[in-house]
Amino acid sequence: MTDVSTERSRFEADDQGWFGEPGLFGGRFMPEALMAALDELTVAWQDAMADAAFVGEFEQVLREYAGLPSPLFHARRLSDRVGCRVLLKREDLNHTGAHKIRNVLGQALLTKRMGKQRVIAETGAGQHGVASATAAAYFGLDCTVYMGAVDTRRQALNVARMQLLGATVVPVESGSATLKDAINEALRDWVASVDHTAYLFGTAAGPHPFPSMVRDFVRGTGDEARAQCLEQYGVLPDAIAACVGGGSNAIGLFTAFLEDDEVDIYGFEAGGDGVDTPRHAATIHAGDSGVLHGARTYVLQDDDGQTVESHSISAGLDYPGVGPQHAQLAHSGRATYLPVTDTEAMEAFSLLARTEGIIPAIESSHAIAGGLKVAEQLAAEKGPEATILINLSGRGDKDMGTAIEYFGLGEAGR
Amino acid sequence: MSAPVSGARTAAAFERARAEGRAALVGYLPAAFPDVEGSIAALRTMVDAGCDVIEVGLPYSDPVMDGPTIQRAVQQALDGGFRVDDLFRVVEAVAETGTPTLVMTSWNPVERRGVERFAQQLDDAGGAGLITPDIIPEFALEWIAAADARDLDKVFLVAPSSTDERIATTTAQCRGFVYATGIMGVTGTTQATAEGVAPLIARTRATTDLPVGVGVGVSTGAQAAALSEHADAIIVGTAFVRTLLDHADDRDAGLAALRTLTEELARGVRRA
């Protein structure tokens, strides 16, 4: 592996949080009231990551509490179907059911180190909220979770989980009452409470240092997957794939492979009803450069710069922005981002359940759907030895309500 | 037109207030709330009843610094079909009164229109400058250049959490006045107090000769009076918005209530 320890990788943000060319993607577009807190967080995060004791404790918690490393699984029946090797990084087996536990345990551990006693979080599907409530319970922190009122209704089970874990769930009625509005409300709380409260940002977006910090906490997904692939199969994958909403699971997988130029990188966005309709969340594919939630990135917006409401069958991908590092990876061509429709995702959801006995999150089903298309291309180009590694970022328990409705399940029969 | 630094577009209003031994009253309403014509009528009423400077808000889908009251008004404007071109209509109609008229806006609509184009349209409408609550000077270089080229006022914010170093960096880039946030929080939530704000104002004054206005958390004449002992301007938004929301079904009554509130606040800045 290339030694990049003595100089900044071309994929790292600079001191102001810009990815790639300064001014292009990232930065810190936030009220002055939060600058001191963002500076404090930046220093605390950088100090912590340079402290072997902190990193050791983080790794121990991940191992002993979150059940990591997650396995790398050879999906044989899927592989037979597409004609080459399909590997799944089983983040769905993590405690609380997704990659997100890595991020929140890292941020909550950092919160303890900073001497703060309260955490706030925003959540769309509820997965980050459940993970945050879990981490708060584990570390003994007070926890408030902001969730769009629409999402509280479609993810009632996760609301109950958060409450059981001791968190206060605040439904947000403003705007579209979805994830972006939950982020706005959490930011407003943070402006008023920043002296004693940490904001556990749920994805690799937002103002500097969140995109880099979240990436650092979730990059274990890719580090593990890369090592497991080499150990179990003796080769790097030809391609890797993940779903992209805000992009935390994707950046978690991608980071370890960015310097491996021979590995093609794919992110799959929520194409909703189709990117030629108004109802999708394919931000990189169809968005324009703008500033949302503290960073310059691709944003679904109208001619006046007003955010356009996104749509996805997956609440977890239903976000009109994207982490700025993804914007840079797309802009530079290092990664390729493609849309996957609701229908394609649900077909993949069903396919994975029936071929491998795994019910994935609908978010992850986007990665499966897109990844299998790539796999078919790889098989045609390189034959059965080709390998694609797909991040199965979460499990589908939380999405059963959607699945029951979509497939008309629950009646005896098939 | 080139103006000396002391000739910032809002300067005359601040100098007049200072000459009268009082603070200036700055009043905020979102453009197109309750609708375009209604916002013009309301803002002109505020001018007529004693506001020295006007802030016109640009309704934006994802405001961070706005509390629930202002967001409700902003959402009404957006639901009513607000477009950024409407903003400039409102600015022009208010600036015609001779009262300095600034735009308060989140950053993305400016960037989306193009910073140069936005600045030119603001200038053409007779606007005095921009108040930018979600961008700090280090990230606003393009706006600073565009404003400097046209002598538009650049009002950045300082907060109780700002370090002295950051206050100095911020005030060095301001023209017109400096906006000091009275509380750690968003608009219309908790109330600012003189004891709470005075240290920030003092720290700000140590870095600049510009007037210092206090906003966020200010809504009553009594507060205006108390804060006037420390600040050069009192900035009020949520209270004006609430007055119109409270009279949503009767526009004349809303304007009358707005006049009464403005007069109360104008008396407040004169009681110090």
From TrEMBL, chain A:
Reaction(s) catalysed by this chain's protein: (1S,2R)-1-C-(indol-3-yl)glycerol 3-phosphate + L-serine = D-glyceraldehyde 3-phosphate + L-tryptophan + H2O
Spans traversing the lipid bilayer: none
Keyword DNA damage: no
Pathway field: Amino-acid biosynthesis; L-tryptophan biosynthesis; L-tryptophan from chorismate: step 5/5
Any one Gene Ontology cellular component term annotated for this protein: cytoplasm
Domain of life of the source: Bacteria
Keyword Acyltransferase attached: no
Cofactor: pyridoxal 5'-phosphate
Key words, A-Z: Amino-acid biosynthesis, Aromatic amino acid biosynthesis, Lyase, Pyridoxal phosphate, Tryptophan biosynthesis
Listed SUPFAM superfamilies: Tryptophan synthase beta subunit-like PLP-dependent enzymes
N6-(pyridoxal phosphate)lysine: residues carrying this PTM: 100
UniProt-recorded Gene Ontology molecular function terms: tryptophan synthase activity
Gene3D superfamilies with a match to the protein in the record: 3.40.50.1100
EC number: 4.2.1.20
InterPro entries: Trp_synth_beta (IPR006654), Trp_synth_beta/beta-like (IPR023026), TrpB-like_PALP (IPR001926), TrpB-like_PALP_sf (IPR036052)
Every Tryptophan synthase beta chain-like PALP domain range: 67-394
PANTHER family listed in its UniProt record: TRYPTOPHAN SYNTHASE, TRYPTOPHAN SYNTHASE-RELATED
NCBIfam families assigned to the protein according to its UniProt record, in alphabetical order: trpB
Function: The beta subunit is responsible for the synthesis of L-tryptophan from indole and L-serine.
Similarity section: Belongs to the TrpB family.
Subunit relationships: Tetramer of two alpha and two beta chains.
Matches recorded under HAMAP family: Trp_synth_beta (MF_00133)
Protein's UniProt name: Tryptophan synthase beta chain
Species, as recorded: Nocardioides marinus
Lineage of producing organism: Bacteria, Bacillati, Actinomycetota, Actinomycetes, Propionibacteriales
TrEMBL record, chain B:
GO CC aspect terms: cytosol
Residues at the catalytic site: 55, 66
Enzyme nomenclature, EC number: 4.2.1.20
Organism domain of life: Bacteria
Catalytic activity: (1S,2R)-1-C-(indol-3-yl)glycerol 3-phosphate + L-serine = D-glyceraldehyde 3-phosphate + L-tryptophan + H2O
InterPro entries named in the record: Aldolase_TIM, RibuloseP-bd_barrel, Trp_synthase_alpha_AS, Trp_synthase_suA
Molecular function GO terms recorded: tryptophan synthase activity
Pfam families: Trp_syntA (PF00290)
Signal peptide as annotated in the record: none
Pathway: Amino-acid biosynthesis; L-tryptophan biosynthesis; L-tryptophan from chorismate: step 5/5
Record function comment: The alpha subunit is responsible for the aldol cleavage of indoleglycerol phosphate to indole and glyceraldehyde 3-phosphate.
Similarity comment: Belongs to the TrpA family.
Quaternary structure and partners: Tetramer of two alpha and two beta chains.
Protein name per UniProt: Tryptophan synthase alpha chain
Originating species: Nocardioides marinus
Gene name linked to the record: trpA
